[in-house]
Amino acid sequence: TVCCSLGPVYHVSVLQVSSLRYSDCVIKREHEKCMERMAEDDPENDLEFRCPWLWDNLTCWQPARVGEVVVVSCPELFIQFMSEEDDELGKVSRNCTEDGWSETFPHYVDACMFDEPNGTHEHPDMYYVSVKALYTVGYSTSLVSLCTAMVILCRFRKLHCTRNFIHMNLFVSFILRAISVFIKDGVLYAEEDSNHCFLHTVECKVVMVFFHYCVLSNYFWLFIEGLYLFTLLVETFFPERRYFYWYTIIGWGTPTICVVIWAVLRLHFDDIGCWDMNDNAGIWWVIKGPVLASIMINFVLFIGIIIILVQKLQSPDIGGNESSIYLRLARSTLLLIPLFGIHYTVFAFSPEDVSKRERLVFELGLGSFQGFVVAVLYCFLNGEVQSEIKRKWRSWTVNRYFAVDLKHRHPSLASSGVNGGTQLSILSKSSSQIRMSSLQAESPAT
């Protein structure tokens, strides 16, 4: 991996979007390495070499004698220009002559840049700008919609149940995830130069810890959504309240443990940079392992739930023809995919150096809209939520109508000891009693 680069394309939970100053980051790092090698070299050894150490702003060339040819790999920054089929970077070389170093042959552009079919070279900056713009819009949209959904679910007491409490925790995890992405981008990539490549402050490390915690929590609450629905379908007696406490501990507690362990290991064994790169695979599995485990278990639960739904829909007790059964099954399946995060399985277990650009668009670009989709499907389009909103709206319009009507009919009410609220409550009670008595009269005797 390289500073500020994509490095190995990890799962979206840990994917670090490269800075638009990718080249500056890599060049500065390679320049520092070259200077360290020059400082470690004994100056007396350079006397026998006609061509001394050379930093040409891209590659570090070691000393050579006249007639020698030095061959090196293309600079690391050209990794972004490689095609998926290329296994390794190309080679460039220089001759040591009586007059010093010769020019590189072949040229860096010819040896290191991948030719597109139309003969042009695609610069990655615009691609990264597009991806960053896409996921910024996605997370912003998700943030607004999720906050609105949270207000709705918290405002109406009739919506307070275990199922919606789990949805609310999932919404909070999506909100925290979006906020952490914006904070991370603001802290790591706000500078106009490449100084962010060498950040070692406590602030940026805390931001990365917070970012990983939010993403892990989001995955665990996706897992809990799947576990809750599966348990609801397979268990006859289901103590929801008692289970909810365990769900809360798993959803918020387990990510805390994982992130604390990861932070301690990074502090003692891999305290390099801002902790945004993950060169140590063993330490990284403390974060990556639980994410992949939650995805795998959720996928199994998803398959199990689909099987149960098929069995229930094909039951003789449920009416409807075969086409309506499959239509309901397809609708249920599509509703469960964003709730369980099943789309993450597309690239979850594939090699991390395969289809990097497709993974970026799919996991970062489209994945950023997941919170918006979940809020729409499980709040705004929820029949129970819509009924409650309509009921409140009707109640508000009726109360407003009576308030205006009473004000016009009895202007003295405003100065009397009886206020409009009391009058409306009496009218509401009276109308309710009349409606109940009429319903009882109309209903057949049993």
From TrEMBL:
Keywords of the record: Cell membrane, G-protein coupled receptor, Glycoprotein, Membrane, Receptor, Transducer, Transmembrane, Transmembrane helix
GO molecular function, one term: peptide hormone binding
The G-protein coupled receptors family 2 profile domain, residue ranges: 33-116, 131-382
Residues annotated as transmembrane: 133-153, 165-183, 219-238, 245-265, 285-309, 329-349, 361-381
GO cellular component: plasma membrane
UniProt KW Glycoprotein keyword: yes
Pfam families (alphabetical): 7tm_2, HRM
Domain of life, per lineage: Eukaryota
Localization, UniProt: Cell membrane
Mode of membrane association: Multi-pass membrane protein
A GO BP entry: adenylate cyclase-modulating G protein-coupled receptor signaling pathway
PROSITE patterns: G_PROTEIN_RECEP_F2_1 (PS00649), G_PROTEIN_RECEP_F2_2 (PS00650), G_PROTEIN_RECEP_F2_3 (PS50227), G_PROTEIN_RECEP_F2_4 (PS50261)
Main location class: membrane
Keyword Transmembrane helix: yes
InterPro entries recorded: GPCR_2 (IPR050332), GPCR_2-like_7TM (IPR017981), GPCR_2_extracell_dom_sf (IPR036445), GPCR_2_extracellular_dom (IPR001879), GPCR_2_PACAP_1_rcpt (IPR002285), GPCR_2_secretin-like (IPR000832), GPCR_2_secretin-like_CS (IPR017983)
Protein family membership: Belongs to the G-protein coupled receptor 2 family.
The protein, known as: ADCYAP receptor type I
Organism for this UniProt entry: Salmo trutta
Native organism taxonomy: Eukaryota, Metazoa, Chordata, Craniata, Vertebrata
Gene label: ADCYAP1R1
